[in-house]
Amino acid sequence: MWNYKTLTCFFFTFLFLTIKAQVNFDYFSVSRVTQDDGLSQGSNYFRYEDQKGFMWITGNDALNRYDGSSVKVYNLNYYFKNCPALQQAYGFAEDQNNLYIGSTRGLYIYNYQKDSFTLIDIYKDLSKNNTAIPIGFSDHKIWCFNLDYQIVSYDPATKKIQLEIQLPVDPLKSIHIYDNNSLSIYQKLPFIDEEQNICFVTKNQIITYQIKRKKITSLFKTPDDILFYCATYNRKTKLLYLGSNLGIYVLNNKYQLSKRITEIKGEKLFSVNAISIFNNLIAVRSANLGMFFCDTNFSTIKIFSKGYERSFCYSFDKIGRLWMCDDGQGQMILNFKGTLLKNSNDIQNDLKNSFKETGVGNISEAKNGDFIIQGVFGLQSKTNQLQLLQNKNYTNVSVFFDQLKKESWHSYKTADNTVIIEMADDHRNRKIILKNSNCIIKNIAFLPNYNPILSSNEGIFWINIQEGKLEKINALSHQSNFVVNALSNNRIAISYLNHDMILAKINAENNIQILGKILPNIQSFYIQEDEKKHQYWVGTNEGVYLLDKNFKILTHFDSNNGLAGTYIYGILLDEVGTVWCSHQHGLSSINTKNFHIINYDKDDGIQHWDYNNRSFYKGRDGTLLFGGVNGFNYFKPPLKLKSYYQPEIYLDEIKINNNRFTPEKGSNKISEIDVKNDENNISLKVLIKDLENGNRQRLMYRFKNLDAKWKPIAHKSPLVLSSLSPGEYDLEFGIYNKFSPRIIPQKKLYINIKKAFYQTFWFWAFLGGLVIGGFILAYTRWKLMKQKNYYQQQLALEMQRSKITADLHDDIGSTLSSLQINSAVATAFLEKNNISETKSILNKIQQQSKDLSENIGEIVWSLKPGKDELMTLSTRIRNFANEILGSTDIYYIPLALMTKLMMRLKILQQGKI
Fold it and tell me: What is this structure's pTM?
């Protein structure tokens, strides 16, 4: 017997499976990765999403790596170590450290850490052909095959290559993409299934190789007239889907036939050349039907016979986006979640084309919650279904919805140019209110207790529902009215194109009382009331103004504080405290709490940069709609950026003085750069890896130890640090997106620019020592030379004195001898009483004694000149002058000059000079 829990479990399981089976193919956005984004070529036959968060895309000329916002092309020789550059690649596999790429030259191995390739000739000793195609990684080995279906295992740890087995099938003629027909191998490459078997899809059979048992098994084969063109394996259900020339084969986990599809919507299915699966969604391309989507039961089908004629190579990424090659144009990506802002252009319905022709100028709502676009199209926002409403051949159709009374008001122009306004009530009863031939309706405002107010080219009117006529409001007589905005407490705000916005109140008996002007001298269009905070948000031609309850300005938002557009076309206040406004440069939101502004662009899904006036609406369920020149956007706040991939900053390349710097452990792994003082020009190629939202992420940097302010790095541009001064730089990188007001730091790099030898302390200490030592040496040498000169002078003086003394000694000696002789002669003459001769001799002795006395004085003076008297010096000078000039007529050394000389000499002697 079924108990309550069992029934409940069964019910929810059934409900889940039912919901899962309901796949909506009517809405998806399309984005591209082309040569404009950096792809080396627009025709790409192989694609692989690795575990590191990169998408690898092949080209005839090079291998491309896509990170979500930028493409790196591996076509330069320095990426390839002792091997030729890789051109066309064939198949991928990976382990924890490396990516393995097949080629006609052998197996290329890409080292993630070093960002470089090496080449191994796997079949060097096994085959004359070098072609190697990786299958996958299993049992700690990379498994490969070649044209002869030789299965080889390669152990990355030991570098051991081992031939495992050769399949008993016909060899491949060629692997080259230009030498293949519809049976080309690259749409049905072998794979390793969940049971660790290598599965090969050949011409018309399935062959497996059991890795553990080393056994080949042929499991499924079709008649010779049925050929397999493509294959895809669902790892969740372990089902294999095969595309053939006569439909689709579905094999179970034992590779036995489970289902065969030969018709789609009553048409034969031929030449299925592309097939891929994600969860319950299957994407198929056939020669006769083109591209179509279906669920796994092939019950819900959507055919796209046009627009994807050149597409091939289908595969889903990890979040369910369908990637395909648009031949010659690059990669096309179909996102079934759509963009952040839902866009009418992503609705897969031909009705959307009319919006591109006329734009969207009117948006309203029906009682059942559907939205009415341009008065004639119905939108189911939850299912993204767009349909044409039943209507007659009318023009200028507009719809206005009274959310309080749940009444729809329609206006349109008939074939005879009569404008008709009619109302549909809760019971969908339509009642014609009035007919007018000249009225052009701009908008209708609804108030709780009064008839609607109509704004038109002829003025502002009450709509008299009972009598079916318009009653002009004379109190609002200004020309060129624009919009009537309904406010609380029976108030309205009327905007004009040639006048200030007027605030008015409706009193009893429909009397209009003018309360004043709102934002005088500013062209105001729309106003939204925040009744909880008693504030007003006004859209103008100068941006958005926030007013208090007395309509005084609190804050102004324009391009000066981050608002992308200033000419406001529409403004709405959502249920979570955010103001939304459309303008001439997209769509923006303002957080009413912190005033954080978010500007939405084409990456977010805006229909076009330019929007339309009066084309905005807030649904009863909180959905917001904004119409523009190319369609409309619809979404239900709050909007949150959700991503399967976690954004990651990686350092891709380093250049020092314009030379590539390749550290041993790789650019992305280093945390410090130490360079010399003349290596101070550093270029850092830093990128953000996020395959889903890479274009929305912004890279920031700062020098944490120098400046706390973050600065942006231009998209796809390296960070160039030129002429860095010697010192330490604590460089930090962060991620910013407009949905979060804060920057998230993620990566650090320490840069140390060493000082030149002449900038170091020890150099200046040494230089200072040299200078001081030089001064000391010079001073010492100067003193030494001075002392030497002094001693040399003293020595010369002594030598001169010795010479003078010797001469004087000889002179004295001769004088004494003469005195002795003259004394003897005088004695002799005296004995002879020769008085005259004796007197003469005595006079000579007297003169000689005098001369002797003077010579002895000169000897003493020469020995001790400082001790001599100045008078003696003057006497000697006088005597010397008398001897030289006494017998001449020359006047010499006057007494006054001699007196002055004596006084000067006395002063000098007192000064010790």
Answer: 0.81
